[in-house]
Amino acid sequence: MGAKNTCNKKNKVDVKMVGEDAMIRVQSANTDMPTSKLMSALRKMEAIVHHASMSCVDDVMLQYVVAKIPAGTATEDQIQACLLSRLNKKLVNSTCVCLNNPAASIICLT
Fold this sequence. Notes:
Elements (H helix, E strand, L loop, with lengths): L3 E4 L4 E7 L2 E9 L4 H11 L3 E10 L2 E9 L7 H13 L6 E4 L7 E4 L1
Antiparallel strand pairs: 1-2, 2-3, 3-5, 4-5, 6-7
Helix pairs in contact: 1-2
């Protein structure tokens, strides 16, 4: 499997799964608390963050995260969709819910 890459006019999200670990790269505008949104989305997904870093260059924020995603709960595409949903909306208008069972997936509510 190759890394999944999704972008829109404001945000770009790359996700690569290695076992239960997700390597996530997010590029976004440095407005409207992108780091808070990303960490909130990961918490709602019940991810365990092993490492996170952020850098700003002019008005662009780059974030790198390595996180353990609960087994069988999400694919690269589902993680991307959830993260993009959170980054594109106001923090209070979007929720990602992770159902903890092998047949479950991440559900993003807007």
